[in-house]
Specification:
The chain is mostly helical and 266 residues long. It has helices at residues 3-21, 25-40, 46-64, 79-82, 86-102, 106-117, 126-142, 146-163, 166-182, 186-200, 204-220, 224-235, 238-241, 247-265. Helix 2 packs antiparallel against helix 3 (46-64) and helix 8 packs antiparallel against helix 9. InterPro entries: TPR-like_helical_dom_sf (IPR011990).
């Protein structure tokens, strides 16, 4: 096919990628199918195919909600291609870092993110900048570097708010609340989460996650009655109830309800 077909495929990948960053699940799924159709009509183009592979991994992260058992990453075949283009090189390091994050290799992830950050100026896209700072903040949070994490997450949230990307902004609020919990400021954490609860309105996934975070915050200060209210509210959302909880989170819930049952028997 012609060069125009490759350009059209590239433009469609950019559109698809924008939906992934904005967490527009349904639109991202539709655009992925459109991209696949364009690629089937296109002459082999290693750069476009590398771009597709990197965006596909980020798409799968969105759809599978970071379930590492459902995510497969193999970027070895595109590493040499990424080196010839600064934007592709940035995306290679960033997505590789995301893969390390999903697999809980946080120190490896931050090394890759640091390489990506040096190339961020070539991207010139606010949504991408916000996404980068959100993920780097998440890694610093996992490494217990809470003040650095908060700085990165707040930076990301400001941009997401400006772009009116509601779900990514709410995710930032949940992480910020978690940071304040770790810094022994449950009141600040609660204020952030209650603000998020008002903004989530018609997003059942986010309502479930925010209620669960509120429950964990109350559990941390041993307010068991209010924690139970929030946990039950979280589980009232079908989409949240059907999601696979991490074993650690599931154990917290089981332990909590067991403690409640024992207290009632005493």
């Amino acid at each position: 096919m012609s060069i125009m077909t490759a350009e059209k495929a590239g433009a469609k990948i950019v559109e698809w990628y924008s939906c992934v960053i904005a967490k527009s699940h349904d639109q991202a799924i539709l655009l992925k199918e459109e991209v696949k159709q364009l690629l089937s009509e296109m002459k082999d183009n290693d750069k476009i195919l590398a771009y597709y592979s990197l965006v596909e991994f980020r798409h799968d992260m969105l759809i599978n909600r970071y379930n590492k058992n459902e995510l497969q990453a193999d970027f070895q075949n595109i590493e040499h291609i990424a080196k010839i283009d600064n934007i592709l090189k940035y995306l290679y390091y960033f997505v590789s870092g995301q893969s390390e994050y999903v697999n809980e290799r946080y120190r490896s992830a931050i090394k890759l993110f640091n390489k990506a950050q040096r190339l961020l100026e070539y991207v010139n896209d606010e949504a991408e900048e916000a996404e980068f700072y959100q993920y780097s903040g998440l890694v610093y949070y996992r490494l217990n570097q809470y003040l650095v994490a908060a700085s990165h997450i707040e930076h990301a949230k400001v941009i997401f708010d400006r772009l009116e990307y509601t779900e990514p902004s709410l995710n930032c609020q949940i992480v910020l609340a978690g940071i304040y919990q770790e810094l022994h400021n449950p009141k600040k954490a609660e204020d952030i989460l209650l603000d998020g609860l008002e903004k989530a309105t018609d997003n059942d996934v986010m309502l479930g996650l925010i209620n669960r975070s509120l429950g964990l915050n109350k559990l941390g200060i041993k307010d068991y009655n209010q924690a139970e209210v929030y946990f039950r509210q979280a589980l009232s959302f079908k989409v949240h109830r059907m999601q696979r909880l991490e074993l650690k989170q599931h154990t917290i819930l089981v332990t909590f309800f067991s403690t409640k049952a024992n207290m009632k028997r005493q």
